[in-house]
Amino acid sequence: MKNLKVTLIALILIAACHFGGVFGIFFWFGGLFVIPAIAMFFQYRYLSGGSIQKIILAALPWSLYSLSGLVAVQAIEHEGAQTMNQTYYSAPLYSAIIGSIVLGVWASYKGYLNERQQ
Prior knowledge:
Layout: H1 2-19, H2 22-28, H3 35-46, E1 49-50, H4 51-73, H5 79-110, E2 116-117
Helix pairs in contact: 1-4, 3-4, 3-5, 4-5
């Protein structure tokens, strides 16, 4: 139940930031390459379960946001707008991938990979 709450809160915050225009500002200053990885670290700390499960659940909201945006971008006909939107939606996906790798390396270094944490 705790994992569901953390994931839903992350999805709600992502939607609020997207529709509130915060991500648009972050995009132009490079924040969409950094903010998702930082957010994943905090999500990882509040999730329960094994390390792999926590990494997957931390990356899930950002992956859903990016992949849904990349699917929607395919309907844009103007090539320039489509390219810009693909860049916009792929930035959080790259950040989530790199954040997952960093969290995996950190968890394996700390020996948490095979342990269950509460």
